[in-house]
Design brief:
Layout lengths: L2 H35 L1 H4 L2 H36 L7 H7 L2 H27 L1
Helix pairs in contact: 1-3, 3-4, 3-5
């Protein structure tokens, strides 16, 4: 494969990671606003459980999508390391494997922290 194609694929993977964050973020906004207004304090438990379930579902699907894109990007980096006479940009991108591993950990870790925060805000 050509170096240019590898870089295009790399940018597609980065975009997939970013786009996978949009849905959960849009879901979190009203939950945050409602929790800040104290709406869940006066709502019945079913409403709180529903909010938590929706946040969990969208968050889980977002994390799975991001994690899949990260794994694919890691495979892409292995192939990029095989390019003969790579440009400085390709070399820099190809050396990003450790950063991707940290990103995968951050996606999962921050997802769990966010979910725990939502549970506390909704049920607290």
């Amino acid at each position: 494969m050509e170096e240019r194609v590898f870089l295009q694929l790399w940018n597609q993977k980065r975009l997939q990671i970013i786009i996978a964050q949009i849905g959960p973020t849009i879901v979190l906004i009203p939950v945050l606003v409602l929790a800040a207004q104290g709406t869940f304090a006066s709502a019945n438990d079913a409403a709180g459980y529903l909010a938590i379930a929706v946040v969990a579902a969208t968050g889980f699907l977002g994390i799975v999508s991001q994690y899949a894109a990260i794994r694919e990007a890691q495979a892409l980096l292995l192939d990029m390391n095989k390019v003969t006479n790579p440009t400085a940009l390709t070399q820099k991108v190809a050396s990003s494997s450790k950063h991707l591993s940290l990103t995968a950990l951050a996606v999962v870790g921050l997802g769990l922290i966010t979910f725990a925060s939502v549970v506390l805000a909704v049920m607290g």
